[in-house]
Write the structure tokens for this entry.
Amino acid sequence: MASTITSSQYIQHHLTNWTYGRHPDGHWGFAHSAEEVAEMGFWSIHVDSLLWSFSLGALFLFVFHRAARSMTAETPGGMQNFVEWVVDFINDNVRGSFSAKNDLIAPLALTVFVWVLLMNLMDLVPVDWIPWLAGQFGHFALGMDPHHVYFKIVPTTDLNITAGLAVAVFVLMIYYSVKIKGLGGFLGELSFQPFGKWGLPANLLLEGISLISKPVSLALRLFGNLYAGEMIFILIALLYSGGILWGTLGGFLQLGWAIFHILIILLQAFIFMVLTIVYLDMAHQHH
């Protein structure tokens, strides 16, 4: 692909989602260019991000459900040992960071960690493989120009996905803050902390910023790190069009970055899980 289009077009193609929405003339359909994606606006749907995120979520549920059904205390297999290790790891983190009593937190932390990790791991799939297959399918089955077939495979490089996860955590924060402290207690913390009743305007400003910054930081931290990692993979892939020497260098660079990126993938899933636990613990606490 990179040999038939410019570098900027190659990068733009790999960073554009498979989008379904309303065209300016009123009909609904898939976008065939980055310009059409922009014209569709806020209410368009990133089909590839939703497809991969739901598929990976289903894979997580299938594997853990199957491991639970085949659980045995006599001769545990490799899958059972792996699942038990993950559950123990999550349980230790919840016990260390969550001081209240809530049976939802551990399953939520497990879901967040494994789901985000699986979505992040898609960043290790070579950037051209699956988009190329999607382009060929679009060309032969639908008669489309392969360059106009967009298919991103890393859901966490889509701000809509990371923001959706962050908003879900934020809703739980508000829900438990009101449930544990009452509506008056929750509003009282926003109004009277940290300077007391005489500092109400400053309290609302500081506490409001602190509250809103939590989901914003959750969404942007995960998105920014994975988006930057994907961008580096794409830039390295451009070297393959420069001949044998540059292609060989690109291969070594891609291998090195993939090995280093494993740390980022694991770390970002862990951070998202830990912050989810901590934020929900704060929602359960009284000043």
About this structure: The chain is about 70% helix and 5% strand.
